[in-house]
Every structure is written in C-alpha cells, then in structure tokens.
Amino acid sequence: MFKLHGIYAPIATPFAGGEIAYDKLGKNLDFWLGSDLEGIVVMGSNGEFVLLSSGEKEELMKFVCARAKGKKPVIAGTGAESTTETIRLNAKAAEAGADAVLVVTPNYYKGSMTEPVLARFYTEVADQSPLPVILYNMPRNTGINISAKLALELARHPKIIGIKDSGGNIVQIADMIRNAPEGFCVFAGSASFLYASLALGATGGTLALANVFPNECSRVQSLFEAGKLGEARDLQMALIDSNNAVTARWGIPGLKVAMEMIGLYGGDPRPPLVPLKEADREDLRKVLAKTGFLPKAS
Amino acid sequence: MFKLHGIYAPIATPFAGGEIAYDKLGKNLDFWLGSDLEGIVVMGSNGEFVLLSSGEKEELMKFVCARAKGKKPVIAGTGAESTTETIRLNAKAAEAGADAVLVVTPNYYKGSMTEPVLARFYTEVADQSPLPVILYNMPRNTGINISAKLALELARHPKIIGIKDSGGNIVQIADMIRNAPEGFCVFAGSASFLYASLALGATGGTLALANVFPNECSRVQSLFEAGKLGEARDLQMALIDSNNAVTARWGIPGLKVAMEMIGLYGGDPRPPLVPLKEADREDLRKVLAKTGFLPKAS
Amino acid sequence: MFKLHGIYAPIATPFAGGEIAYDKLGKNLDFWLGSDLEGIVVMGSNGEFVLLSSGEKEELMKFVCARAKGKKPVIAGTGAESTTETIRLNAKAAEAGADAVLVVTPNYYKGSMTEPVLARFYTEVADQSPLPVILYNMPRNTGINISAKLALELARHPKIIGIKDSGGNIVQIADMIRNAPEGFCVFAGSASFLYASLALGATGGTLALANVFPNECSRVQSLFEAGKLGEARDLQMALIDSNNAVTARWGIPGLKVAMEMIGLYGGDPRPPLVPLKEADREDLRKVLAKTGFLPKAS
Amino acid sequence: MFKLHGIYAPIATPFAGGEIAYDKLGKNLDFWLGSDLEGIVVMGSNGEFVLLSSGEKEELMKFVCARAKGKKPVIAGTGAESTTETIRLNAKAAEAGADAVLVVTPNYYKGSMTEPVLARFYTEVADQSPLPVILYNMPRNTGINISAKLALELARHPKIIGIKDSGGNIVQIADMIRNAPEGFCVFAGSASFLYASLALGATGGTLALANVFPNECSRVQSLFEAGKLGEARDLQMALIDSNNAVTARWGIPGLKVAMEMIGLYGGDPRPPLVPLKEADREDLRKVLAKTGFLPKAS
Predict the structure, then answer these.
(1) What is the mean pLDDT of chain B?
(2) At residue B213, does pLDDT exceed 80?
(3) What share of chain C is helix, strand, coil (3-state, %, to 5)?
(4) What is the DSSP string of B133-170?
(5) Cα separation of A19 and A21, whole Å?
(6) pLDDT value at position C297?
(7) A298 — contact with chain B (CB < 8 Å)?
(8) Rounded CA gap, D195 and A200, in Å?
(9) Helix D251-261 and helix D278-289: axis angle, to 10°?
(10) Residue A250's closest CA among A105, A49, A46?
(11) How far is CA C13 from CA C251, C258, C263, D118, in A?
(12) What Å distances lie between residue D95 and C259, D92, D99, D129, D231, CA to CA?
C-alpha cells in the first residue's frame, strides 16, 4: 500500500488568459518530476483548488497523473465543503490514476464542524474512497484544527494513512507521532518546521517551498536520515525566510513569482488573488537570493 | 432602484434523498411569501450555498424567483471563492429575475484577503453585475471582517447598495450608518441585534430566525418604526433565545427542525452537516415554545 | 442602597515627576465634580490602577473620596489578581468613603479562570465586602469574558449590584438586561455603544470619554430619557470618533492629551506607557475638534 | 558572565494558612538543589508571582537565594506591570544574590504594548539592572507575543542574555536561534517542546514539569547532548502527557498535587486559584504513574 514518505511539492496551477495553461504546466512538471522530490500534490492549497470548477479539477488530475505516471506518485487534493462532492472527486482521482487523496476539513460552517461531525465526515469519505486518504489540517485557511485526538481516532480507519499538518503546533505533531498506530504517518505541512517534525518522527512533508527549491527541501530530509544533523539543521535554517516569503508573507502570488525566478512558468493567480507588485517582486528576489539556491543566470 | 428595507428570510434549502426537494420548497415558499416578510434571500449561509453545485445554484435561483415574482423581492447569494464564478452567478441571478445579489467575502485564502484585495474583488464584481450588489460580512464563517472603512469605500460604487453585517459589532454598524452615503443601507444579519441596529439607523435585516417567525421578526421593525419602542424592545428580547438556538447553538440542523415545528418542511441538511439529535430537538422545542409564538397545534 | 445610574467618568490618575500629582488631581476633580456627570470612578483601567502600588491606591481613594464627599458618588476600582488583596482594598475603599467597588476579573492565569472559579472569586469578595460590588468585564485588557450566564448567577448575590461591560457585545448586554433580577444594573463600558445599550435598557455607563466631554456624554442619556431619540442618537454618533481616539487608538496617553485640550492637567502616563508623539497629538486634536465640543480658546 | 544553559525548575511557592510556608519551601528546595537540575527560577508564573505582595517577593527571593547559594544558580522573576516596580525588584534580586532576572511583558494594557513600547520597556529595565536580564515570553497568560524580531533587537543589549519562550511556536524559536548574536540563548518554556527546541539549538529550558521530574527533564538534555537522540526523543515523548497535566489541563493546582505525589509539599494555591478536586487528583495520579517516574512508595 502507498506509504507517506519524503518531500512532496503541492504544485501551483498555472493560468494564462484565465484558463489552466496545460502547456506551461507540462514544462513545470518536467522540472519537478526530474527533481529529487518524492512526489507531487495536485490541487493543494497552493494549487488554488478552491478557485477551480469541478470540471477543471477532473481534467487537471488526469493531466498531472498521466505525466507523472511511472515517475513519481501523485496525491490529489479532493476536499470540498460537501461530503458528496468530496466522494465524487475521490472516485475521479482514482480514475485519473492518483496514488492517494488529501482531504481538507470542510470549513464554512465552522461552528458546526465539531469533532464528532468531522469524524463522521472523514469516516464516510474514507469508507467510500478507492484510494488511501490523507487528512489535511490547515487551520490558517480553514479556522479549524484537527486535534491529535481526532487524528488518532481516524488513524484506526484502514483507508486513512496519514495527516498533513500545516498548523505547525509542534506539541500536537509530537502527540500524533507518539500515539500513531503502525502505518499512520505524519507529514509536515510547511518547510519552516520540517526539521523539527523530522526530529520527532515525521516521515516527510508537503511543502510550498518545494515548488521552488525541491532538491534543497529534499536534502533536509536525506541529510537528517543520514544522521548529518548539523547540516540538516543548517539547511533548515537557510530555508525559513524563503518559506515565509512564499507562504505567510506573499502567499500564492509570491510562490508564482518565485517559480519564475528559477525558470518555471508562474503567471498570474486567479482573482480574487492579485499578482505581486513590482516592489514586492524585488524584495522577494532578495530573500530567495540570500539562500544561494537560485540558479546562477536568474 | 431596489432599496434595502425591512425583514428578509435567508431561506433554508430543503433536501430529500440528497437532492433539492422542490415540491417541499414550493410549499415553504407559499408560507414565507404569504407572511409579513419584506422579501426572501436564496442561497445565503442558511441556504447551505457552499454545499450546492453550480448547476443546482442556477436551478434554485430560477425556481425561487419564479415563485416570488410579483409577490416579494428576491436577493440571491452569489458569492464564491473565485471572482469569475461570482460574476457568472450574478448574470444567472439576473436571468432568473432576482432583485439583487448578496456577495460574501472570498475566504479560503484569508491571509491574502487584505482590504485592497477585497476592494478590488467587490469592485470587479460590481462593475460587471447587472443587479445591485449587497456586501455580506459573515466573520463567524469566513474569519474575515469587512471593516466600516472598507464598506464605506465600496459604498461609493453605484452598484453597491448596502451591507448585511452578521458580525454584530455594534460600533462597526454605527460607524457604517453614520458615514454611509445616501442610498447605502445597513442590514442586521441576525435577529439578536436587530433592535439595536434599527435604533442606530439600520433599515432592516436578513435573519435566520425569520424562516421560523417571519411575522414576529417583521413586527420588531414595524413597532420600532411606529415609535412603539418599548414593545419593539420587548419583542426583540423575546426572540434572542430562539435566535441563538437556530444560529450559534444548533445551526442549520436546528433551523430545519424549528421549521418543522411551525409546519414547514425541514428535512436533513446536506452532509457533512448532521441532523439534530433527538434530545436536542426536545431542548429546541422548549426554547421555541417559551416564546409563545409556536402554532397551537404543534 | 446605592444604585447604578447615569454617566461616570473613570478618571485618569495624573503624575508629575513619577508621583501622583495630588494638586493637579484636585483641580481636575473640581471640573468633573462641577459637571453633569453622575459620579466618579477612581482606579479604573483609565486610572492606570495596575501601575499603582498598594499604598498609592489607599491614598488615592482617600483623596478622591474626600473631595467628592457630598457632591458625587465615588466607585473605587479594587480588583487585583489575588482575592485577599481585593478584599483588603475593598475594606480600604469603605474606610475612605467610597460608595461602591468595581472589581475586574483576575486575569493572569487565564486558563484557570473558568466560570466556577470566577464565580467563587466574586462570591468570596462580595461576602466580605462592606460596599456594593460591581462586576467589571474588560475582555480587551484581560482576555477573559464574564458571560451573561455568569453575571446573572452572581447577580443573585445581595452585594453584587451590577456590571460594567466594556466588551461591547450587544447581544450579551441584551441577555444580561432581559434576565437581570430587580436591582441589578448593566452599565456600558464605552461611549461607543452607550446609546445602543441604553436602548436595550442599560442604566448608564462608565466612559473614558467622560473625562473629556462629561456634559456631552451625560446629555446622550438625558436626551434618551427625555424621549428625544433622534438627538440622542446624533450625539452618540458625534462622539464615536473621539471615543475611539482616547480608547483603542491612543489609549491612556491619548486620553491625557485630550484632557489637556479641555484645560485639565494630563501629564505623562507611567512607564511602560509612553507619552503621545507630537504628530499624534495633532491628529488627536483634529478628531476632537471635529466634534465642536472643545472649548473655544483651546 | 552568567550563561543560560540546562534545565531550570520554575519553583512553586508553597502556602500554609494563606502565608508563604518557608519551612516547607526549605524542604522542597533540599530536593531540587540535590537534583540534576541546573538551577532554580523563583517567582515564575508557576510561583504565583502575581499573587504575592511586593514585600513577600523580596523576602522570598532572599530565602531562596540564601538556600541555593553555592549549590545552584537562581533566576528571579521580577516582571511587573510598572517599569519602576520591575527596576526596583531587580535591585532587590541583586541584593538577595540572584544570578539573573526573568522579566515578563507588562500585559494589562495590551493595546498599548506595541513593539516599540516593549522595546523601550526592556531597554529601560536592562539599562538599570545590576543583573543579566532574560526576556520572558508567555503569550498564554499575557496575550502578548515577543516576536523574533523584537527579541533579536533586544538581544543586542549587553545586559539581555536570553529569552524563555513559553509560546511554543517552533518557527519563532528557530528564527530567534538562527539569528541570535553570540551569547544570546533561547530557552524552551515548557517540557512539551524541549526536545524540538534543543534540536534547533536551544540551550535548555525552564519547565514547570521540572518541579516534579527534575532528573528526567534534565536527562532529555543530557541524552541529547550525548548524541543519544533516540533515547532523548523517547523520554521527551514520555513526558508530554505529564507536562500537559501540570500546565494547560490543571495548572498550578495540578502542579502542587503532583509535587505531593513525589513527596514534596504542595499545599493549596492562593485564591482565586482553587485546589484540585478529588476526582481530578486521581486522574492526575494516573497520568503521572503512566510515566513510570513516580517514586515506588507513592
């Protein structure tokens, strides 16, 4: 069965003229599929999944899975507000050839998303999922936290194989890891706390920054696993500012500009997201350049 | 031009067998359209709009507008995460015959929804809207607040005619009212602060509780406007517990059960929302009964 | 027995050379005691009570009560983190001649300040208080909210006569008012929601802004009680910006500068609070001047 | 100069009959001073410092420093709302023979505690402090966060030698560590994230749990420094539940009961804190017993 391990990039969705730019995406995929990454996440938060129509989601999964086939595993973000739509997208992800699905918490009706309601949601989704299910905890965007208690309760479901925790509460991450049943893996949801998570027993991460620095992000984990802790830690430290720049500070617009700085296609995000301002682009370049990881020519 | 005034019910969407139950909805509409309500809001938060597909939204608007035609105005909730989808739904609302659109803040990318970004979103939406646009501030669900400053900036747009403020910050509501340009109206978004909002100059409200007690909610405003402040205030006080029961405490599942208690069709909400438990139904009945407003037979 | 009614000023504590400037305070008191205010609150949040030593608190209460004697009632802020210290200060307030005490929630150990713990705290304090006790809800400073449920439970204690609610949650204020036992009064804790609170049945308020505009603040209530609602509402609206300036925006340093603008002694706050910058003073003057309530010469 | 390294216990203050029980404290100190702990913190949050009078604080520092002299270093918690009082207590700490002072952020006037105001506070305090100053970041109690940016700005002050960060934001901790100037140390403020902090370069911690399990807490660090990472991590994991029990879950009352379970004197906390209920004591014993670290006889 599919097992969560290593570094995944939650890939950006490129647009041109308002539509998904598949030719550009193909070239970007060539880069990521040829990198040290373990795999690809399509339609994660950084993939602007909430800005895609149902039809676009199906088409996008098909395209990415076809390109990645035989090269790297693909995890598809299929979480939706409605249980039915999530289940439907899971079936489509399986048809497309994805290896697992990543399911964010429904979040508009926050007040009603109690732990029992979330437990029921994930159980119904997992019961009907043809693919392994990964919980997706993203409190910054959803306003909801999947507690260690809830995650561990759901971890007993045979289809639920892990959690991507983007909350960054290191005690919660430790709680999940130490009480996880065999086979349930915890993934760091951001490059900023990757090393600390690995130190506690996380098996990898899904990192926005891995769109831009896939090999460097992967090296944090390979150094850690080789016992080269000092080097791993130093590399982690070197990545924090860049990570902050393409997440909290400038978000998806920043991520897309950063991708252009390494030679990928970035393009504009879908509205209401707005392209980065010129001055911010310059600041972003400086932050990235400080790492020394940008290609020479850029 | 359409002007925001009076009490609107943000109607619940009835489901049967997982699908929209149009026959039941028709009967519910007969009740609301024959009540003292000023109008109807379709696909508000209480209408489970985030759980409907794009196709269902179009169909639902058509059905409700056709039934309401010549009887009461209809406001359609068309806000979506994507600007394009919001604009598309606004066009469909106009085709269906709605009188105005209610547009919630995009909210998944909270960190990116700064005031300038929200200003741009609403401006683009209003520029292309065939119908008057009402801002929808719903911080409890979205994690985002439309500040008085932002609302007043947008109030200068000729198509933006008001705001439904469900946040309940009475100072913010006062700020909007006292600085609003001619023709921009402020609507209370909950029965719990309707009277206080009217006292400050709000022109009405869109109230979940108006699904259940449309005449009583409307009477708060008519008493207020007739200068019978003591009676208006007493009625307001009598509605607070019921309002809390069908909003914060039991949410949409509670609202649907409350509707059944006055003889309407409620039915189950769409998953992940779960039906009310038996014990909670009893508690809810007691809360509603205490008002003395339930029909005798129930 | 003492009854909460009308507008109180929570007076600023003037310092000169780091010490309480009693001569300046005396002159300020002449102004407030000669105004339309109902009474005075000494050692409220605006009185920098947490920056005073126990000895200073005793001395300050004595001074203010002696000056106010026979003129206006004095409420003394005696809340401290420790129950024992609160009880001790209540005894001193009685000795000094205060009419009632205002007791803020202990707040450093937020996680331990559950409703039962707060209920026990206030009950112990009230049991041993020689003076009527007023609950003080100040979530912005304490991070703790006294819920309507807790307030109403405590309202049954014969010594507990009311609450000053500075939280501004108008639904909570309505909840307290409609369920309050005879004799338990609700006071607005800020000029920004005074009118809305009065409309719901509050009996007055303790308002930072009343240090600066005592007569105007008092007139909101007298107009309201005379049934001149439009005028009361307009005056309320005119006070919002000034209130914001001397509370949320510039805090105590702003309040002290505003006092200087009407001819009182303001002086510097105690460190760590810092005096207002020159540019902010100018902005503050403009905000206050816009009301038209500043004395002509200033 | 004094350097922050190793595990410190922020010792509980024992009371009997409402007064500090110095005889009990003496015996408790014998235990801690004979343990593997690096040192002692007197009047930290767990020492109920906000419930002590100024006089008690001076006396308590003297007593603890006299007992610890020649055995282990003592850090004194001297933070107060007022700058002047903090400076005064720092002088008293030096007289008493403390090695450093721990200064929490003033926090009642949260809205005024901007970064420049906090910077000025700490600079004034450090300028006049005869002892090295340690910043104390305790957002759970204060509602205020000392950002990495502010900490690093203050780290340039020659008297400011480190920070105890109890917030547990591991990215913030990483940020401080990687940019800290030579000699500025970062201390974990809770046993729950000690290992993760050490992995990133923290030099130790001040841990409530070290009152109860001083040797086990110290062993996490000694194992880590000896390169026995697996053992250190396992021990960390074993301590999480106990730590949660004596911090977030049952707070100081729980800590005092836990102390009794290892043969120390606990006693009741000062009101408004309330003693643990009997049922909670049993639950706490189970949590602690699960570690296997309780003494056999208990």
Answers:
(1) 97
(2) yes
(3) 50, 15, 35
(4) EEEEE-HHHHS----HHHHHHHTTSTTEEEEEE-S-BH
(5) 6
(6) 60
(7) no
(8) 8
(9) 60
(10) A46
(11) 14, 14, 16, 22
(12) 41, 5, 10, 12, 42
Q: Residue A264 CA to chain centroid, in angstroms?
A: 18
Q: Is A3 a catalytic site residue?
A: no
Collapsed DSSP state (helix, strand, coil) of residue A278 = helix
Euclidean distance between CA atoms C180 and C148, whole angstroms: 9
User: With an 8 Å Cβ cutoff, is B200 touching chain C?
Assistant: yes
Q: B233 and C201 in contact by Cβ < 8 A?
A: yes
Considering only CB atoms, which chain D residues are within 8 Å of C81? 50-51, 272
pLDDT category at D298 given cuts 50, 70, 90 is very low
Contact D174 A229 (CB under 8 A): no
What pLDDT band is residue D215 in, cutting at 50, 70 and 90?
very high
Q: Which residue is listed with tokens 């419930």?
A: D51
DSSP state letters, C246-260: IIIITHHHHHHHHHH
Nearest-angstrom CA–CA distance, C42 and C24: 15
User: Do residues B187 and B163 lie in contact, with contact meaning Cβ atoms separated by under 8 Å?
Assistant: yes
Cβ contact D272–C106 (<8 Å): yes
Interface A–B counts its CB contacts (< 8 A) at: 103
d(CA A297, CA B193): 61
pLDDT in tens, A144-170: 999 999 999 999 999 999 999 999 999
- C-beta neighbour count of C3 within 10 angstroms: 15
Residue A50 structure tokens: 């909430």
Whether the predicted pLDDT of C252 surpasses 50: yes
Interface test with A, best of B45, B54, B58, B82 (most A CBs within 10 A): B82
- In the three-class reduction of DSSP (H, G, I as helix; E, B as strand; rest coil), residue A110 is classed as helix
Q: Say which of D177, D196, D229 has its CB closest to residue A170.
A: D196
What mean pLDDT is predicted for residues B266-275?
Answer: 98
B85 chain-A contacts, CB cut-off 8 A: 53
User: How much of chain D, in percent, has pLDDT values that exceed 90?
Assistant: 98
Measure in Å the smallest separation between the Cα of C171 and chain B Cα atoms. 6
- Asked if the model's pLDDT at residue D51 lies above 80, the reply is yes
* SS3 (DSSP) at A213: coil
Which ipTM score applies to this complex? 0.96
The residues of D that are catalytic are 164
223-262 of B, contacting A, C-beta below 8 A:
248, 251-253
